[in-house]
Amino acid sequence: MIEEPPLLRIRRKFPRPSAAQLAAFKAVPTGFLCDAMNGKGALATAIAPLDLAQPAICGPALVAQNGPEEIFATIAALNLIQPGDVVIASVDGWQGGSCAGDQITGMMKNAGAAGFVTDGPMRDREGVLATGLSCWCTGLNPNSPYGKGPGSVGYGAVVGGAQVNSGDIIVADENGVVVVPFARIDEVAGKLAEVKAAEDALEAEVKAGKKSILDLEEMAKEGKVVFDD
Asked: What confidence tens digit (pLDDT) does each residue in 28-70 have?
């Protein structure tokens, strides 16, 4: 037999990005961030904005690891929120009920959270939107979760196919949620200007009438393309 785990494991002190590091990612489109990380970094497509009109967010992750059907760690995370935090609630992808509703998200907003992200559904859509807290989830389901534990707060979890650790930078907009690992913050920030310049240049060419990217004839001369007609 094994020992019963504690109801909660909490890490109150974890590395957090500086104000200057966070500023480098403010108002940056999620697509630019993925380009700066070799085309990766986004959570699964199922994790989508609760409302397309809600504000984009950027902030440090505060991860609450719940089990399926659980909300205990998310409730505990309310005591640890620092202004600007993005609460990440993992339920191991469970889709059978709600991971949070308007009362929980209302308390997150009162505590200064910038947003909420979960790999499960939410409920009380109208009430959640009224709180003004930007949320990303997999959909809506009115079933209730349980608050029994065990769970952990301040560590990490796999959410939407990606490892998310407390202290990582979360950027989320109408296109989805992107995780910038804490160890890569400065590296990724350093690539953003180059990514933006390349995107701006291509956008200008498209607006000027550009119709394609590949020169198929030239590639054929190099043996990279074969025309069978």
From this structure: 999 999 999 999 999 999 999 999 999 999 999 999 999 999 9
| Residue 66, phi then psi, degrees to nearest 5 | -100, 160
- Binding-site sequence positions for substrate: 101-104, 123
Indicate the pTM of the whole model. 0.93
Residues in the chain predicted with pLDDT less than 70, given as ranges, are: none
- Residue stretches of the annotated binding site: 101-104, 123-124
Residue type present at position 73:
A
Annotated binding-site members for Mg(2+)? 124
In a domain, 222, yes or no: no
| β-strand pairing of 169-173 with 176-180 | antiparallel
Which range marks the domain in which residue 143 is found?
A: 8-184
Distance (Å, whole) CA 207 – CA 150: 54
CATH number at residue 34: 3.50.30.40
